[in-house]
From TrEMBL:
Xref: Pfam families: SBP_bac_3
Gene3D superfamilies the UniProt entry points to: Periplasmic binding protein-like II
UniProt domain Solute-binding protein family 3/N-terminal: residue ranges: 29-251
Name this polypeptide is given: ABC transporter substrate-binding protein
Superkingdom classification of source: Bacteria
Keyword annotations of the record: Signal
């Protein structure tokens, strides 16, 4: 009798432990979207469209391993522009977007897994430019280039500034050296990485005005189970040193 009870209890516990996985349909899949945002996510061939193994970068490698450990299927596509990817993820169930900067303004719009990486927001000036500002308010008198619907641009706009938004952040490198903008509001180290690709070095950091964290943003209709399993996988990767190793490999 006792053995029968133990066996019954074991079966019950086993079923409860497995129930979290059973809640997802067998064909469940997350549609992951990303963009060229080096060194965090980028097309191997530097083009504006890529799929699956044609995408690499710090965040891309981490997200792949997260999904593998969580046992959740996915598709991964790199597209352009960011504004379109952002709106697709807002509107479509089971869509996810990375690397997405976590902000209080965006917090209620998505479900979040992270942080995947840390960055800083900066104002950059062209080589040899001696502009000096002590705050964003000081910078408001200058022409500031930014990336449309990016968290940096959204932050500037929320503070009353009017950045000149480009559809590709790389465009701001050219605008800066041509004198079409005075300052470039971007993410560090992304800005310097993009500038180097355009053979531009020696940019001057005029102001570092915020520290930020990059996350995987999931559509609000994503099952909580998916979020929990992915977060658990990410926490394990961090504790094992996987994230530090990947980051060091790229930087």
């Amino acid at each position: 009798m006792l053995n029968t009870l133990k066996k019954s209890l074991f079966v019950t516990l086993f079923m409860l432990c497995g129930s979290a996985y059973a809640e997802l349909p067998q064909d469940y899949k997350v549609v992951l979207l990303t963009e060229n945002f080096p060194p965090f996510n980028m097309a191997v061939d530097d083009k504006n469209f890529a799929r699956d193994d044609g995408i690499d970068g710090i965040s891309a490698d981490i997200v792949r391993e997260m999904f593998k450990r969580a046992g959740i299927d996915y598709t991964l596509t790199l597209r352009f522009p960011w504004d379109r990817l952002y709106r697709l993820t807002l509107d479509k169930p089971n869509y996810g977007l990375f690397s997405t900067t976590y902000t209080e303004e965006r917090k209620p719009l998505f479900k979040w897994v992270g942080p995947i990486a840390k960055t800083g927001w900066v104002l950059l000036a062209a080589p040899g430019n001696d502009i000096k500002v002590s705050s964003l308010q000081d910078a408001a008198k200058y022409r500031i280039g930014a990336y449309k619907n990016d968290a940096v641009s959204q932050n500037l706009e929320s503070q009353g500034l009017e950045p000149i938004n480009a559809l590709r952040d790389q465009e701001n490198v050219k605008k800066l050296v041509r004198g079409q903008i005075d300052l470039w509001a971007t993410t560090d180290p992304v800005g310097r990485y993009l500038a180097k690709q355009e053979d531009v070095t020696g940019l001057n950091t005029v102001l570092r005005f915020r520290e930020a964290e990059l996350y995987l943003a999931l559509n609000k209709d994503t099952p909580d189970e998916v979020v929990q399993r992915l977060q658990k996988a990410l926490d394990e990767l961090r504790s094992e040193g996987f994230i530090d190793d990947i980051t060091e490999n790229y930087l």
